[in-house]
Design a protein that fits this description.
This protein is an alpha/beta fold. It is about 45% helix and about 10% strand. The protein has two domains: about 170 residues, 3-Layer(aba) Sandwich (Rossmann fold); about 80 residues, no CATH class. Helix 10 crosses helix 12 and helix 11 packs across helix 12.
Length: about 325
Amino acid sequence: MDKFCLMCSKMLLNKFDCVIVIEGNRGLGKSTLAVHIANKISRIMRKIAKETGGKDSLYYNHYRFSPKQQSKGNGKYVIYNQQDVLDFMDKWNSTAISDEQINVSFNRDFHQKGNIQLIKLLGMNRDHCNLLIMCIPQFQVLDNQIKNLCKIRITVARRGVSVIQTPNRTIYGRDKWDTANNEKIEREWLKKGSGMPQYSRLNTFRGMMRFPPLKENEQKIYDSIKINERNDIKGDLGIGAENKKKSEDMVDIALERLKEGKIRNNHILDGLAIAKGVSPDNFKNQIRNRLKKEGVSHKLTQYYWDNPKAKKEEIIKL
């Protein structure tokens, strides 16, 4: 893992983009591996920054990856919908994970107009030196042009074990991944029925990589983001509109009670969120966003009535 992430970092420092596709069946840990890679590359860049001038270094804010900040409503590091991916491609020296890129967020329209836009941006903005990690069920369902723009393909064979592949350097070959030959090689070991895949025989094979589960707190934050983003996608598709309306009504009620100083503490808001079937973080972020729009303090603790520093009679102006 360390060697792999150092290699990716050198690629980025050499003014190339780094597009990684992670494939595998559901539940094997594609997202887990993507987070590990993004975190390690972020730490490598921060280390380089400390060695080359600290906060004044060119790399200080490059490739920052912080799902924790996203869960608080600050920034987008894990992206699900079509527009967020396209917007990311126009950034410079940034990191993002496009989770469940095909089977969750992108509808049929994406594979037409959206795919064309993505291919154009991947081609034009290579000098933006972005790190994009895409998680998909199967590499073969990608558009051929996107396959050829992909720098690294990682297959999660089972939990904690992955296979690294990179395209062959060809001049005349249209398929850099040599799909036909690799498919024949795969069929040979399947016919033997040994149950032991011989990945090293693939001519795009570069190595194996192990990875551990996420820490409990990291997993909790990531799950929270996933729930929130999926709910937003469902809302765009008109799914669960009635529940969304109920949630919005509850936000109005909670906001009014907060201003009146009738919410005791954080646990009350958590309970309201769970009762309405949304994550507590998402529920509280909606309240904070409403407060920001009104131009008042968005720190919820200032409104709790068991907070000795809270001001009950007036809202603190920003």
